[in-house]
Amino acid sequence: MKWQLNKIQYPIYNLGKGKRIGIWVQGCNLGCKGCVNQTLWKKEGGAEISVLDVYNWIAAIQKEYEGITISGGEPFQQYPQLIAFLHLIKAKTQLSVQCFTGYYLEELYSLFPDSLFLKYIDTLVDGRYIEEEHDNENIRGSLNQNIYQIINGIPDIDNTYKSPNKWSLHVNKDNQIHMAGIPKKNELESLCGELLKKGYTIKFK
Q1: How confident is the model at residue 14, as a pLDDT?
Q2: The domain spanning residue 156 has which CATH number?
Q3: Three-class secondary structure of residue 53 per DSSP
Q4: Domain boundaries, position 185
Q5: pTM of this prediction?
Q6: Residues 6+ apart with CB under 8 A from 77
Q7: Residue 205 lies in a domain
């Protein structure tokens, strides 16, 4: 089974508790205005990777990490791959799972009546991003979204849950900088402006 992914970034410290592995899926048709990850909307981007290959790679380094965070794109638009991967993670590792989705929890119940996602996900951040309700607390995009802690398959809202860190940065072998985190309102524009003053430009991919 192939999974269309945009990137895997590690370690990250701000999209869930502790030292984590971040997985960004490719493809989303929800089209939220002001989305920070619009380059992940197209299905054709990223790369096709075997779910088993992703699991095997993570299993080999799992002892160094506390959890996995899955974002996108829209993870639930590749539901079979998501569930197959999370089944392996929960059956064979002690890693916690946090997942971001643009769907509301009620929509997930309707779209996926098996509700298997409740068996495998520990923390779920749900809902469309609404630009006018941007949240500056760095763990959810906008105030309409809810943060659910899922215990024994039962989701409970915990919007007091905060991220202790602001950004996680990674520089790849091509000297591209990958930032993981939810920016505050106008923060990216301010960053680009400051870098431009110093002669640097940023191109988002």
Answers
A1: 83
A2: 3.20.20
A3: helix
A4: 2-197
A5: 0.83
A6: 25, 27, 28, 29
A7: no
